[in-house]
Amino acid sequence: MIRHSVILKLKSDINSADKRAFFEAVDKLAAIPEVQKFEVLKQISSKNKFEYGISMEFDTQEQYDSYSNHPQHQVFIQNFWIKAVEDFLEIDYVLL
Length: 96
Known about the structure:
The chain is an alpha+beta fold. It has one domain: Alpha-Beta Plaits, CATH 3.30.70. A four-stranded antiparallel sheet has the order 2-3-1-4. Helix 1 runs antiparallel to helix 3.
């Protein structure tokens, strides 16, 4: 099992309509085949600058690679991610 997590901070000048569109597009990523346990989270700790998290799981590396290369994911990156995200941290975990 691979847990894919992205922790992000949105650009400070993003307006509410663009922010809403961004998260609507994020939610649609859950429909990509083999995505499991999809969650969008609001970060509440004052210990870091990040605001939100996106988490999902995949059974295999091949499924994760398929998601990463999926046309819907690529369109999301080009049309929403690049325009809205100021900074992020991506972490991919496997169980020990």
